[in-house]
Amino acid sequence: MFLSKLIRAPKTLAARLTFWYSSAFYLLLAISLVGMYFAISAIFEGRMEKDLTEDIEEFQTLYQEHGLDRVLFEINQEIMHEDPEHFFIHLFNSQGDSLLHSDLKSWRQLPSANYLLSTFSQQKENINLEKNAHADEDLESYTAYGKISEDYIVHTGESNQEEQEVLEILKIVSATIFCIIIPLGVLIGWLTARKAVSGIKAVSAAAADIEQGIFDRQVSVNAKGDEIDELANTFNAMAGRINTLIEEMREMTDNIAHDLRSPLARIRAISESTLSSQIDSNSCHKAASDTLEECDRLLQMINMTLDVAEAEADVRECKVDIIDLSYLTEDACELFSPVAEHKDITLSTHISGLCTVKGNKHNLQRMLTNLIDNALKYTPEKGEVIVELENQNSNAIIKVADTGIGIPEPERNRVFDRFYRCDQSRTQEGCGLGLCYSRAVARSHGGDIKLKTALNRSSVFEVSLPLSR
Amino acid sequence: MKILLIEDDHVIAEHIIKGMKEAGYSTEHASDGFSGVSLALTESYDVAIVDLMLPKLDGLSIIDLIRDKKINLPIIILSAKRSVDERICGLQHGGDDYLTKPFSFSELLARVKALLRRASNVVEPTSMIYQDLELDLLARTVSRAGKKVELQPKEFSLLEYLLRNQGHIVSKTMIMERVWDYHFDPGTNVVEARVSKLREKIDKEFDTQLIHTVRGLGYVLKQAD
Q1: Residues A66 and A147 in one domain
Q2: What range does the domain containing B63 cover?
Q3: Is the ipTM of this complex over 0.85?
Q4: Inter-chain residue contact B102 with A370, CB threshold 8 Å
Q5: Closest approach of chain A CAs to the CA of B53, in angstroms?
Q6: Residue A248: which domain range?
Q7: Residue A373: which of B83, B186, B217 has the nearest Cβ?
């Protein structure tokens, strides 16, 4: 179990994150340690060279102030106190004759006095620095030689043993740090990465649940406001939307089933009563035409459902023309004028300004007639329906106002829902899709529809559509 | 009169053949695109009823082939696709009319008859007379029994349409399409209201009623019930 998890681990995001981050971290750490090592050795080297130069300069001062004896005394002091293996000093005259020197057993590789003298003729420097090999192969020696007067030359040097020891310790410490940090870093990295992707895991678990059919599943948000929370919030919003849609669809299917059932029940009743009664041609004829009417109603309902779905699809998918809304509005009002007259309703049209929109004529025509038809349907006799069209800051505004039964406040938001019908409208013929269709059309044209109320009017449906340029 | 029916649904085909026979037309039936198009290209028919979704060759291709051969055969498209765009597409391919399924047979018959009449009446009349009803298409005036009747433009178009189809039922859908160019049912009783208004002007003062309602089917202009 653990083993299989471990094999699978490299594929996980957490493992890859850990790998890449720790690799980058170790690389940087190694670079800085190596850099530090070289910086420190450079400092040491500088310091040694400075020491040697100062040493020779001191002898020059001593010679000038106190003469050769004092120099000899100081050199003797140094010979007595220093380890000959790691320090040497040699005083010779301009003929190359050695006057005083420390034990030179470990310094055999040093250049001879004559060679050093010959270099003075070639260069002007008073003090010369050199880096030489040392008897101990791990070490290096730093040497300096210079004239303390025209006749005497001091050659001195020391190994970098002390410095080498410090650097050795530095190496050990670095290695230890590395050894401790590698497993620790991997562990911390792994835990952090795990923690970071745990939010993603929660989201994917929720997605899996949704796939299993638990549509109301939500991911808990930590309220830290980080990316994971953002993801969780987006996911929740998406899941919520899907859930709402599914609920809506479920409700819609229920509604369709219910609304289809009523005409079906009527068809069934018609056929049954025709069959069970005395059959004569008159009753047969009536039954058949009743059935036809019910079939047409069913068909209209199914068609309307499809139309809503179609209208909700983008308007670009259907034929688009430049439409003169004033013509369309006049035409629609003219169409309904006998219906209004029949109910003794005043149907008036107010059109101001040129209103052309880019859209589908058929859909817009249908949206308009829906709104007018509704207004007429729910306005009692002797009422009034006003259709207004105006041009308002790059929008065409169509208002359909009536003096009808009105829509109660709590139901106003739902009138555009599929199959939603106000209690008061139940008695009227219709399938509860007209307003839903109208909204779908308005939105697919980049506009919207709103239900407003106005003084002395029961409801005002206001459609705004962006004007074509 | 001979009708070519290209339709793969046998129940619908039988229904149409039976109805057409009763109406006095003989129908030849092809149940797939290939046999349909070969019949259309070899035999001569007065009108063709073509379904869009067909095995082997679809309806639009059949219409294309017929039109390519310059055969002037009136075609009614039958389709379960009911969007206006589909209709426009069908008509652009050379169909003369478009009917969506499910349809009423009387609607189909009315459209077939209208197409046949259109094919035979090449010369546009300038006036139409039915009994004592007179329609002057140029002056756009109407009189009944010599008495002038004032009609609104759409009422005139409606009456003209009824008169062109005198004695034949025209459905509400056909009226909406031909008179208003609305390819959908715009509301509860738009056509009824308009027809009753027209009836008031044409029939009210007269003993003989000319405009009749056929329940569930549409309207007809005829002399007696």
Answers
A1: yes
A2: 2-120
A3: no
A4: no
A5: 19
A6: 227-310
A7: B186
